[in-house]
Amino acid sequence: MVHRRSILTALTSLGAGATLAAFSRRTRAQRGGARAARETIAVLGTGHFGGTIGKRLSALGYPVVYGSRAPDAARVRALVTDTGPRSSAAPHGDAASRGAIVVFAVPWEPVEELLPSLGDLTGKLLIDPMIAKPTVIEGYPFPPAVPTSTAEQLQSWVPGAHVVKAFITISYRTLANPVRAGGPITIPFAGADRRAKERVARLISDLGLDPVDAGPLVAARYIENVLWFEVACNRNNRTLFELSLRRVPG
User: Fold this and answer.
1) Lowest mean pLDDT among 94-98, 119-123, 134-138
2) pTM greater than 0.85
3) Whose CA is closest to 19, among 192, 168, 161, 184?
4) What are the Cα distances from residue 239, in Å, to 1, 2, 137, 179, 235?
């Protein structure tokens, strides 16, 4: 675990208070009453990250539908079986139509071409854990030479949806077993819509992680840069590093 006080301070200063306070109030209001029905979550992609977050959310009671180009493939059927009775698989468009929340657990580059097949995403919460392919200079990967983030670009393509950047700062291995990090894990997120961010904060908390509001959607650029620092460590040292954030006590 690497503590990055300056990065965490920059993220939290951009708007943590309002969303987390609202989330806390909403959580307290639900205590003592019937537990709210779980929203159906569409996970587009059945790779390492998609399968991991799908299994974890399904175990918490969320209905999960995987979006796949080949939902009847043996590998996908096996994933559905492993995920449990609340899960299923369908073509990407069918999955997106069934999910109130859509997690884009796919590579970034095909997303623009994929979007027309997803139907009307107006009003849906879209969670973006994606990163664009790097620009390679003299064999070294650097952030893409674009003045934006994948989350901002996705929002521009689907203006009627609510895009929230989240889960890019945690590996699928640690998401599957957070204990391996040796302590609490903070997940920064960013988005334009307050209600959408409250819903993401709830998901993060349900997963046993610590949500922190990094601010408006433009702050997704900060969040993506955390991952680029990890890429730089791995590439230069030829050693696998895994960064994650943790609040500094006090």
Assistant:
1) 134-138
2) no
3) 192
4) 15, 15, 20, 22, 8
